Amino acid sequence: MSAVMPIADAEQRRAAIDPDRSFIVQAPAGSGKTELLIQRFLALLGSVERPQQILAITFTRKAAAEMRIRLLDALVSAQQDSPEEAHKKKTWQLARDAMEQDRKQGWELLQNPSLLSIQTIDSFNAGLVNKMPWLSRFGGVPELAEDADTLYQQAAENLLQRFMRGQQGSDQIGRLLTHLDNRMDRLQQMLVDMLSKRDQWLRHLLGVRGEESRQPLESALENLVADKLQQLSAACPAECKEEILFCGRYAAAQLWDKGERPILTLTDLDWMPQAVVEHLPIWQGVADLLLTSGGDLRKPRGINKNCGFPTGDGHKDAKIRMQSLLDELESSPAFISLLSACRELPRAEYIAEQWQILQALIELLPLLVAELWLVFRAEGQADFAEIALKAKEALASATDPSDLLLKLDSQLEHILVDEFQDTSWLQYQLLETLTSGWQQGDGRTLFLVGDPMQSIYRFREAEVGLFLKTFAGRLGDDGTQLEPLRLSCNFRSQQGIVDWVNCSFAGVFPAKVDVASGAVPLAEADAVLPPLPGGACELHAFNGRDDLAEAEQVLQLVRQAQQDDPQQTVAILVRSRTHLPQILQLLRQQQIPFQAQDIDLLGEQPVALDIISLTRALLHRGDRLAWLSVLRAPWAALSLHDLHALVADAPYATLPSLLQDEQRLASLSDEGRQHLARIWPILQTAIDKRGRFGLRQLVEGCWLALGGAACYSAEALDNAALVFDLLERLEEGSDLPALDLLEKGLSQLFSAADSTADGRLQVMTIHKAKGLEFDQVILPGLGRRPRGADSPLLRWLEHPEHGLLLAPIAPRDGSEQDPIYRLIGKLEQEKQQLETGRLLYVAATRARQRLHLFGHAKENSRGELKPEKDSLLETLWPVLGEQFGVCAVVSPEAEPQMMQLALKRLPLYWQHPELQAAPLPQTIDVGRASDLEEFDNEDVPFSGWESQVQRHIGTIVHNQLEQLVKQGAESWRPDAADQRSEAFSRQLAVMGVPVAEHDSAIATIMSAVENTLQGQKGRWLLQPHTESACELPLTGVVDGALLHCVIDRTFIDEHGVRWVIDYKVSAPKKTETHERFYAEKREQYRGQLLSYQLLLQQLEPGRKVRSALYFPLFDGWCEL
């Protein structure tokens, strides 16, 4: 793969880095989007007075961290020789220019990376709220809620209590309860679900109040129906219109006395209906004439009296004309499809009951949001949506947002937005507000980059239509003008993959752009890398579902890939976690390590289920299922026969009382009695001590005493620790406020990662894989359909041409569903089907070398293979259908197989291992080298890197450098940046670092490690040395005092000198020279380093010992 193709879009790439122009760039998969962003950022750095004038916004921490690291890497590389590759040379030259500007302006970016404003949209919002508390009404940034659902639940309960007290909103609640058949529980859960999406609907409802809002809503509905009828009228074949009218009049005349049917609107009709809402019933009559109940065109042989064409010679000519019409319409599938859809179109007005329910929701839901605000304020917490809403509110409260930001020392001259295709309406409006004062040619620029073909986050209200609308050349209706650019080169995948994607997705993606539905046509890519031998994409087809056979083939592919090239990366990507159980079971059975991205729910792990059962049993003596589970758990594993004998004839007795019944115990097996003789006293003690200890201490102590830690693998014990951590977070006064909080908490946590996996095999959902790339990609489960979505309390849709559509949920009494509600749902379904095609595109374009597709189809009654409805395979069927029938392996039809779990149990005579008695140590005052007065002055306030947050950063950096010494520098894999970022975020959260500061803290950690890996001194420190150690604890006597210390890094160099190195995660201030900085630190830490030297000289008399401070943020070195 040494030869590469020409760069077909070189001119567009050159234009994109012009710092004086604003652009919107479509950058398909593998097109080098991140490098283009880096080049643009570097070009801007070369022209601004302050780096803070540039703001880069991303949508994930991973993307922000990657951009910051690559930007700093580019700045560091500017100090080295020019690279050979053309694209790297361009980046190098831009970085040289940026460093020259850095020198002129005195920024010292490499020592002060925090000057680079690269933020997630969430952290940017939090920053706005923090800077403008008087406008946002937060009074400061609240704590980010770990479990927002609990707060939503409380707000919903508070709202429903208004009904009991007859307060404001009680009439609306009563109306909704009647509509939902008095199901208070269902209404409460629907309100909770609505709160989680309030950033999507709240802006609509605030502008829709009172009876005067009915006309705009019905007008929008009328415009939409008229638009659909316009499309239908235009698609109707002109040569068929006369025959449609004749056949319609004839059939209606035969059916006039057979009951109400839409076809009767065609009676005596001698003109075709027009594209107006008044003619909708006539179009539905045409559909009744031509279509079956399933929406398909009628078959000529199926024409009979039920269609209005009875048998007999008198009807023969009409019947023949009807059959000929149907034959003619076979060549007009678009008309038939639109005609079928018109059956579902509603009247362009709300009936009285619809409007009453809609009004109740319009009036009630803002009250629900107000209740949530009160809950947030009481708890001192908020979710991301609330922070985003308040940030938008704060900006919108000023007539000129740019002037407001200037007053707060946040003047912006240039904004870059990554992944713009995933922008929501709220984020789009925020961007409009930020740039509302910008004028063409005023020196301020906007740079938007993304790929609408990879827009797959509609569940987060990502609206791809916003990208399509903006690509026309302007942000909003009156915002910044933008030049559209489209990249085409794919630097990731070999030509075989690129050609397959171009060919296949031409039949998957729509042909034309449609902003309203989010239809994105395929933009074909140009391969840069040459093809590899062999097929690029392989189909593994099954006739009938066989999860085990599919999993075995996946396992075979993984083994073959690892055998062919142990260093290549393989990814197993699925649409849903539920498609993985058989595959994961086989991987574990074969002891093949893999990294899983949020795949195994903690609540599904056996160790977690056992601990939850134990918790419920200890908290509630009457929870029979929990007690039976405890007795069946591995520490006892009573047989089913013994369990039955214990409880069969005592349906109302508690298990603890039955376990004290000697006569009943005598009916158990000898083995069962012996197990109970060991565990029952432990359980009884735990019950007696309930309330005296914290809940975690009670449950964990009982679990250990029962032998829980001896029943599971090391990986399962890590999961047990996560469950105990959750218990500690949830407990209140040695109890749980509600038992369902425990199950809900477990449903939001994932099991611990396999610490032995190196990342060469990864398992994740397609959504998680976005932005990643792998040598081989395996896509199993394409034939399975996803779980259906629940019906929301309110459906809403903002149509870009017709306006706002709103509809309430249908009544629960079984009557016909609200037609407007159904229409909005159908429009949403069309959007979802388009996104399904984009999801497949994202999955396929992760592959660098090979792509494997797995799926099953089933034979219908005619023996034809057909995929399941709404499956990914159905989307690909126009491309794969013919090939599928040829290569499909016949599988016996069977129900989905249950995973086989072996029942584990402790041996009958298991006992705790004996603990050796240890003498209590004599208490001795031990000093620490870092406690010496000469460099620790409590009167000096912390500043800069010495703040508490920076101390936590330093701790993580120390840990990372220790791992690099032990595992080698190659363990810091570039493709694992997202896992590291998430791990660092969890560690920071545990240390108490506010979420708003995570992004900058993670960037600092990444920068410190990257600089160490690239720096001359850093590489030397990480290399293997003689008698090397990290975090070495030493205790000894210095100047007559017992002293304890932990040395960050020590080793003997090639000259036989013992080195003592102490890491310091700090850097010179902006106006401070390196010499002055080193002098200050040398004096500050002299006593500490001398103590280290003296302790080591006592261990190695006669050996020369030298000490130094190492500063990983800039590869700084300061010897004592």
UniProtKB/TrEMBL annotation:
The keyword Secreted does not apply. GO terms for molecular function: 3'-5' DNA helicase activity; ATP binding; DNA binding; exonuclease activity. It is an enzyme of class 5 (isomerase). Gene3D superfamilies: 3.90.320.10, P-loop containing nucleotide triphosphate hydrolases. One of its GO terms (cellular component) is cytosol. It catalyses: ATP + H2O = ADP + phosphate + H(+); Couples ATP hydrolysis with the unwinding of duplex DNA by translocating in the 3'-5' direction. Residues 6-494 form the UvrD-like helicase ATP-binding domain. The lineage of its organism: Bacteria, Pseudomonadati, Thermodesulfobacteriota, Desulfuromonadia, Desulfuromonadales. Keywords: ATP-binding, DNA damage, DNA repair, DNA-binding, Exonuclease, Helicase, Hydrolase, Isomerase, Nuclease, Nucleotide-binding. InterPro entries: DNA_helicase_UvrD-like_C, DNA_helicase_UvrD/REP, P-loop_NTPase, PDDEXK-like_dom_sf, PDDEXK_AddAB-type, UvrD-like_ATP-bd. Residues 506-771 form the UvrD-like helicase C-terminal domain. Its EC number is 5.6.2.4. It comes from Malonomonas rubra DSM 5091. The keyword DNA damage applies. PROSITE patterns: UVRD_HELICASE_ATP_BIND, UVRD_HELICASE_CTER. This is DNA 3'-5' helicase. GO terms for biological process: recombinational repair. ATP binds at A27, P28, A29, G30, S31, G32, K33, T34.
